[in-house]
Design a protein that fits this description.
alpha/beta; 24 nucleotide stem-loop, u2 snrnp hairpin iv. U2 a', Chain A; five-stranded parallel sheet; 14 strands; elongated; SPS2_domain; Rcpt_L-dom; signal; transmembrane helix; transmembrane
């Protein structure tokens, strides 16, 4: 009897886990999340898409928008195009995006935008594409990418040397060898002095103990 009860509970647990996973995953097509002008915003799907098949195209938009549809995307099987936009800010928020599997185009094509903030978070961990170019960033203003953004995109690529086709500059500071050598010298000297002081104190303590013994 107990065995039957345990078996039934195990089956129910597996069914509940499977149901929860199925409910958490929402599959969408890239066309449901693509917009080609401001009028298309109202036609965006209201589904909390987690897995998207097909390219997502965001084009010809002006001003900040309420587009929370992109927040839930975790996997994109296609490319992301953001082109010809003005003052979108971080309206296209892809902080939960983890995977991009592009086919023939670069994984990201960010071109001819003014006032766009690339809102892709550190969760992005895998990017693959059949194109020779991994990321395309041209004609954007401000034409700057932070060190963390560059690092995330670089490390996420399946290629050891991902290709950035870009006229952006990276907001990073060149590594100055003399600067680190200076601090290495200072730290080494400080450690040496502390070590000498500790050795001196240890001998001083032993002398005091020897005198007391005598």
């Amino acid at each position: 009897m107990c065995l039957k009860v345990q078996t039934s509970l195990a089956i129910l647990s597996i069914f509940a886990i499977f149901t929860r996973i199925s409910a958490a995953e929402t599959i969408c097509n890239g066309t449901e999340l693509s917009v080609y002008d401001d009028l298309d915003i109202g036609g965006l799907t209201e589904k909390p898409c987690t897995k998207v098949f097909g390219d997502i195209v965001i084009a010809n938009l002006n001003g900040g928008k309420r587009m929370s549809n992109y927040w839930t995307i975790e996997e994109l099987y296609g490319s992301l195009f953001i082109v010809n936009t003005t003052n979108l800010g971080d309206s296209v928020n892809l902080q939960n995006l983890r995977i991009i599997h592009a086919s023939e185009s670069p994984a990201l094509v960010i071109r001819n935008n003014r006032g766009l903030r690339l809102a892709i978070g550190a969760r992005l961990g895998y990017v693959s594409t059949g194109s020779n170019i991994t990321y395309w960033f041209t004609d954007n203003w401000p034409a700057a990418m932070t060190e963390s953004e560059h690092y995330t995109l670089f490390m996420a690529s399946e290629k050891n040397r991902p290709v950035f086709y870009t006229d952006n500059h990276f907001a990073t500071r060149q590594c100055d060898g003399w600067y680190y050598k200076l601090w290495t010298f200072v730290f080494g000297t400080l450690c040496f002095m502390v070590s000498c002081a500790l050795i001196g104190l240890s001998f001083y303590g032993r002398r005091e103990e020897t005198k007391k013994g005598i």
